Amino acid sequence: MPSIDTARLRLRMFTAEDLDDLSDLFADPDVMRYVGNGLPVTRQEAQVALASILKHWERHGFGRWVVTEKTTGQFLGFGGLRSLVETPELVYHLHKRYWGQGFATELARGCLAYGFEQHGFDRIVAIAKPGNAASLRVMQKAGMHYAMHTNYYGIDVVQYAISREEFLQIT
């Protein structure tokens, strides 16, 4: 399975040994505020999520990576692409101590490049709850544009999108 290096980040495949870091991330109420029902997730739920992440790679040939700081190997969070109703969706979740430093935008751009250049996608979307201004700003900085307000799995969201052609114009 592929890995990605950006200027400051290394995106690598998840392993079973990443459960502690993933569980710690999911236990943070600030990180989880705009995810799902907005509540922290238990270790058991993190284990189910990790299994789902690994299974997604097997089924679809793309997915989400562990995000580490390239020089130190420090776990920052995770992100990548997943399938949202048969459309690749950009996702990113970082520990709050790494917010506001441009890591999410760098991660997003690396994932978009992978999706368009390595996987050949025509279009990639990203969603966020309307109140998540920081996530919406990451989408904009990554070159995505507002597509619509919609609802997935009973959750109201704002959807952004970018086409391969649009991405190639900004890179």
Notes on the structure:
The chain is of the alpha+beta class and 171 residues long. The protein has a domain at 4-122: Aminopeptidase (3-Layer(aba) Sandwich). It has six helices and eight strands. Strands 1-2-3-4-5 form a five-stranded antiparallel beta sheet, with helices on both faces. A three-stranded antiparallel beta sheet has the order 6-8-7. Helix 1 packs across helix 3. The two termini are 25 Å apart. The model has no long low-confidence stretch (mean pLDDT 96).
List keywords for this structure.
single chain, Aminopeptidase, 3-stranded antiparallel sheet, 6 helices, 8 strands, globular
In short:
This protein is of the alpha+beta class. Helix content is 36%, strand content 31%.
Rg (CA only): 15 Å
Summarize the biggest pleated sheet: 5 strands, antiparallel
What CATH first level of the domain at 4-122 would be assigned?
Alpha Beta
Q: What is the CATH superfamily label of the domain at 4-122?
A: Gcn5-related N-acetyltransferase (GNAT)
Which CATH-level-2 architecture of the domain at 4-122? 3-Layer(aba) Sandwich
For the secondary structure, the number of strands is: 8
Anisotropy-based shape: globular
Q: In what order do the strands lie side by side in the largest sheet? A: 1-2-3-4-5
Going by helix content, strand content and strand pairing, the class is: alpha+beta
- The low-confidence runs, each spanning 5 or more residues with pLDDT under 50, are none
CATH topology of the domain at 4-122: Aminopeptidase
Q: End-to-end span in angstroms?
A: 25 Å
Summed up, the helix count is 6
Fraction in beta strands: 25-35%
